Amino acid sequence: MIAPAKKIDDGAALLRLAPHNVEAERQLIGAILMNNETFFRVSDFLEPVHFFVEPHRVIYEKASQLIRAGKVASAITLKSFYPADHQIAEMPVTTYLLRLTSEATTIINAEDYGRIIHDLAVRRNLIRIGEDMVNIAFDAPIDMPPRSQIEDAERRLFELAETGRYDGGFHTFSEALRDAIDMAAAAFQRDGHLSGISTGLRDLDEKMGGLQRSDLVVLAARPAMGKTSLATNIAYNIARAYEAVEQPDGTMKTVNGGIVGFFSLEMSSEQLATRVLAEQAEISSSDIRRGHINEDQFAKLSAVAQEMQVAPLYIDQTGGISIAQLAARARRLKRQRGLDVLIVDYLQLLSGTSKSASGGRVQEITEITTGLKALAKELNVPIVALSQLSRQVESRDDKRPQLADLRESGSIEQDADVVLFIYRDEYYLQSRKPKEGTEEFFKWQTEMDAVHGIAEVIIAKQRHGPTGTVNLAFESQYTRFADLARDAYIPTRLE
């Protein structure tokens, strides 16, 4: 039998104060008033709101304004910014300020005191978030279903985790040099010697330097060009190459490949897994779905599936989610399992807020692309977002996509750091097949042979590198992209 819960005494609950350290606050403010240089040791991370005692917030804020204006902040100069009869802790302002200076810590300990005050403020914020969660759950507002409350709490927790760090401000040149050498060493050790994360496609990596952190990469194409196939190829290539080392603090640092999150808004996770399985096993996905495989092929599928199980590739198959929901789930994935690359298939299936939706589809897409770019910076990972193209491509003789073809909003072009288009001449030539045996047919056959199995990835925009076109091999039966064989590596034909 379960014992009944013990009722908490209301008086005891009232005595439980939020975590704080009034002595540390007094000694730090006293140190700042004694020596204004102390302020610059804590000003990068410590704000007035971090102080528990309200008068201390006001004193710190007034002192900050004076020091930043190039003036002296002391017990005497601060006195003039208070009414003559104002009291703090039942003492005249001057008496209280002079008492703070008498209790001052040394400038050497100031940063440690500032961190204590900051950390206690973070703990109070955690308590506040927890209280809000409880109160909202009890009140159950009509316009805030439980799922929205969870996402709001996750957002607030992630913001709390990511803000107020102590690593801001100026760095010495020697520190900057060390960081540059570390980046070069990481690039040297990584597959392909790239500064970014390798896509697993050699020629594309050479042109882009890999996928760069905090970049929004838009991958766009007309239907049947293979944009989902290229995205799944890249996702699995990165996940398969994943290697990490344990840091002194117990966390894992990615040194090669990466942990991939894949938002599949159009296809189910089973369909996506079938595609990747077909690509890796070199068996047609349609044959897998229809069961048109023999025992040897099934054995190969099983062996490949066994190898693929360890790849850190996480799929969210929820359709029609909002940009806010996507951001919340991405934050959760990074917090719980880690995250190095995020792929969204595709951005036109995302929804914005009701406010942006009421302003029209263009405004909604603007909110989505702006949100994706902000998320890429917040999580410090590259986001690859697939996009549709408008039908105006089909009305041109040259059907290679252009930036103006990006559907519904110029914000896609504006917010993206990299814009990639996929174009396959073979797809369009197939529909123009002339009658066999005619001169036009032989000419068409020659053209088909020249473009068979070749896809162009057009880099139409790249903030950090050149634009241009990269040719890839496309094996349509496996929906797989691969590197084209280079002429230098093709064996010499013996006559």
Class by SSE composition: alpha/beta
N-C termini distance: 90 Å
CATH superfamily of the largest domain: P-loop containing nucleotide triphosphate hydrolases
- Major sheet summary line: 9 strands, mixed
> What share of the residues does DSSP label as strand, in percent?
5-15%
What is the top-level CATH class of the largest domain?
Alpha Beta
Low-confidence stretches: 1-15, 488-495
Helix content: 40-55%
Briefly note the CATH topology name of the largest domain.
Rossmann fold
* Count of separate DSSP helical elements: 20
Protein model, in words:
- The protein contains 20 helices and 13 strands.
- It is an alpha/beta fold.
- The chain folds into 2 domains: 148 residues, DNAb Helicase, Chain A; 298 residues, 3-Layer(aba) Sandwich (Rossmann fold), CATH 3.40.50.
- Strands 7-6-8-9-3-10-11-12-13 form a 9-stranded mixed β-sheet, sandwiched between helices. Strands 1-2 form a two-stranded antiparallel ribbon. Strands 4-5 form a two-stranded antiparallel sheet.
- α2 runs parallel beside α4 and α7 packs antiparallel against α8.
Notable characteristics:
disordered N terminus, 20 helices, two-stranded antiparallel sheet, 47% helix, disordered C terminus, single chain, alpha/beta, 13% strand, Rossmann fold, 9-stranded mixed sheet, 2 domains, DNAb Helicase, Chain A, 495 residues
